[in-house]
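Troubleshooting: if your tokenizer reports a length mismatch, compare your output against this known-good record of 611 residues.
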Amino acid sequence: MSDIIKLLPDHVANQIAAGEVIQRPASVVKELLENSIDAGSTDIQLIVRDGGKTYIQIIDNGKGMSLTDARMCWERHATSKIEAAEDIYTIKTMGFRGEALASIASVSQVELKTKKADDSLGTLILIEASEVKKQEAISFQQGTSITVKNLFFNIPARRNFLKSNPVESRHIIDEFTRIALANPQIAMSLFNNEDEVFILKSGNHQQRICDLFGVKTDEHILPVDEQTTIINVHGFIGKPEFSKKSRGEQFFFVNKRFIKDAYLNHAVVNSYENLITKEQYPFYVLYIDIDPAQIDVNIHPTKTEIKFEDERSIYQIIRAVTKKSLGQYHHVPNFEPASEDTFLNLSKTSNPPSDERISSPRSGSSNWQNTFVNSSGVDNKPATKNDWQQLFDVMKPKDTVGTMSSFERKNEEKISLIETIQQSKNIFQIHHTFIVSQIKNGIILVDQQKAHERILYEKYLEALDRKTISSQQKLFPKTVTLNSSDEILLKDILPEIRLLGFDINELGKNTFVVNGVPAELNHHDEQGLVEYILENYKQQTSQTDKKEKIARTLSKRASVKIGTKLNDEEMSVLMDELFACKIPDYSPDGNTCIIKLNMEDLFGMFEKKIK
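Known-good structure output:
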């Protein structure tokens, strides 16, 4: 029997390694930028096209490479950063494992130009799928230029998994932003499809933050600076009133390396307790200096996760220094949560709605939301005897008890159920959250928020197909400012947003003007609304198309919330509209909207039998 275990060819091993290191164009950008930083560059240019799929070029003025180094750097595990295994635990450079360039070269077409200061000529090397196609001496300035073309050209399956150009461009901007924040002493520039995104001059951390995010230092952010025996922490945190409803402006750097750490993020967010709502995210850029021997940066291929020797103590320090900064530099304002933007005209009042303010119910999904008027708030009046009697009336067994099976979405059952609910007067609300209705052989419980999400979701999908939602022009247009990453995302979904009645146009770099909103939208905070839409859109990882994601996002935003008091007419209309939906049983996220309990279930809870 012949042997079956063989060594993989180098090009196959490199492609396998590329699957871990090079996940998308942004991974290439990250690795090449870090190499330029390790080369001692003071000026770095990044040029990308088509989301980095077809073209990525990085030009730096670093120390450059000799002819031998220019050839060796493409070999697997070739590195100038470490010599012994012990060096891994004292890493101070960005890259060190020697896998990045070999992985990039195995899945793309690469052009390298480089020259050292004391060499008379530079070196040009062309590589395609790990194979050197050309090598020659050229005239070149000091530094290195690496161009990566047609990423994953030889692995079509991997290329097909890449997202749209705007999405990939957004990931590249995120990587560029992180590296620019960690290295403010380096001048950096980014061009995307010939458009200037960033031109950053060398400076300090404060200047870099202002250039990247357009913040006014004194008005928006507070300094943080603390030295302890374990770590040194410095940087900036945002004032509570400037917190956003979208993530993306939260950064931790450990020894100049960007990391993702949910545990430390909780420490910062926890220090804003009672200053911001759960839907808001504070801005922070925090730099942690720590002995490299106390951390392990080699636990993840992309090196964005690290392991601390004493994580609990670091958590306490981060939380303490951020609370100190908030208390020392900022007078806590009287916080009032912003009113929810909603496609329902719900007012924020604790008074129960009067009968005079409730219009008669109308059928049809296009008009149902107009019956919800001034219906939010909490009614704290004690329950009366009649209220309790209604509950017992619903729970009483009837003479005729059906044997309906578990609730299914069949037209005949749905029609029968709707007729039963419409004929029943026993519809009431529990804790301003659930709607209970008696049916022929039991009761049903409806989650009012999830049910409303389903109704609006199907309505918006229909509107996106038929373009039926009108826009109401604003007397005074409002401007919305976003970071570069969110700007690209908003541009990508603008056509769908406009179909829902939003009139939003570009005003300038990172700035949009809101000229109109859907006619039925009760709006107060355009900035917060746009941030909410973008944040929820980003959090949806499903493979659904843009229209479905946008419809799902807006249905969440506009739905009637838990704690909203509804009167009988409003509950009746909600039930009618829910059972008119194509899929009434589940919310757009797949959560259950309806639970049915037949009489057997109810008596079983009390260990009784039906006679």
